[in-house]
Amino acid sequence: MSTVFGMLTAFLLVIGAILLGGTPLAFINLQGVMIVILGTFAVTAISFRLQEMISLPGNIWTLLRHGQRDPNEEAIKVLKIAVEARKHNDILMLERLLPRLKDTPFLMKSIQLVVDGAQPDEIEQIMRREASTASARHMRAVDFLRRAGDVAPAMGLIGTLIGLVRMLGNLDNPAEIGPSMAVALLTTFYGAVLAHLVFIPLAAKTEHCTEEEGLVNNLYAMGATSIRRKENPRRLEMLLNTILPPAKRVTFFKS
Q1: 218 near 131, Cβ under 8 Å?
Q2: CB-based contact 79:233 (threshold 8 Å)
């Protein structure tokens, strides 16, 4: 929600400044849109495969929507499962738990491996590979957003140069000077807005979500491995706290 709220607020502030300052239509220029918006995506596409381009929006949306899980809450969830597993010592209990974990596919798969009887080392290896693959996929999205954030201002500069060349070539025709100057200025404006209100903030947020998702997935893998080894949940709490940031460490067992 903070991502959507922040982006909407930024755009509303820019739009508000435009509305207060004069005619909004003066900020709409088809040539500038073609040069900056379409040009940015075209140039960025050079660095990525078509299949990646198609899947990137969905990956970014999924990560921003589901990737923001509180590590503290997820650690407590893992510890509750570990306590129940040790208390009942029953694989069927874990199997009945699986449908309730659909909103956390990584944790569900980890517990499914425990139910299937996979060895602890095997569970750890499989889930770490899964986490590494997911992280690499999300970092590809970060690379795309950063690349687009670099290209947008450059396309704005190219548009500015085009407008200036047109203006200088038509100094003897005053009617052409205004439209040419509009292209020159608006392309810079479009490039700055795209880069600093869309691509760069999204890249930073996506990278943060990727790091946090990696931490949470690591918690899930450690929990599943500990459950499979039938370790004391108190030991699992200690292990989880070794990878949690100090502010997010859990105190599940009071004594």
Answers
A1: yes
A2: yes
